[in-house]
Write a sequence for this structure.
């Protein structure tokens, strides 16, 4: 964040790993904007790339090694949730406090009673929409923080994701969709790792033959 409290440096990197130097400012009067410049809103973060996947259609991989806590922004147009029988890559939207820009109260507790539609990444440069859900023998290596950007009833918003560990080049970025996502669509959850583009393997629990559930 810059000295001007309403200005931020773009989070994205070039394909060679250089941080974008462009400044991002609020687009709809929101407290904190989606932290990508207009160019990277359309093209996506150069640290990531989308490849074809024989089962999922597409998946998201690291172009070069990513450190733990690498920040990535999911973003899209705010609207209504589609029926479960339609292809859907949207994420629920919970607008942050318009004064603080945060999704937590004074006690640090997450606020979850202000649902305001979904963020639909269709026809945007969002890349997280292509990140797979880990299969039964795999684990997530990124997660959302419940830090949103945008304003209530606005047209555009975003959600912060962080990597949970170092992610080697060509490794898939995976996050847990939730058990309800699969059952609502009648889809069987399967492993998504590929030889050239592996997904992180599940770590066995100590003293237990079975792995812990994600």
């Amino acid at each position: 964040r810059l000295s001007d409290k309403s200005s931020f440096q773009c989070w994205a990197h070039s394909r060679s790993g250089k941080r974008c130097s462009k400044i991002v400012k609020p687009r709809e009067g929101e407290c904190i904007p989606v932290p990508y410049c207009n160019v990277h809103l359309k093209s996506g973060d150069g640290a990531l790339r989308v490849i074809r996947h024989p089962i999922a259609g597409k998946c998201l991989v690291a172009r070069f090694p990513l450190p733990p806590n690498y920040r990535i922004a999911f973003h899209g147009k705010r609207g209504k949730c589609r029926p479960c029988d339609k292809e859907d890559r949207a994420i629920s939207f919970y607008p942050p406090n318009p004064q603080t820009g945060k999704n937590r109260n004074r006690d640090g507790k997450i606020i979850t009673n202000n649902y305001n539609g979904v963020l639909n990444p269709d026809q945007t440069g969002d890349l997280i929409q292509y990140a797979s859900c880990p299969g039964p023998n795999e684990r997530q290596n990124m997660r959302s923080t419940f830090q949103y950007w945008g304003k209530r009833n606005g047209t555009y918003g975003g959600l912060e994701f962080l990597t949970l560990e170092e992610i080697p080049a060509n490794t898939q970025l995976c996050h847990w969709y939730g058990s309800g996502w699969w059952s609502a669509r009648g889809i069987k959850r399967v492993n998504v790792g590929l030889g050239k583009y592996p997904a992180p393997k599940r770590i066995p629990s100590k003293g237990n033959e079975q792995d812990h559930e994600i």
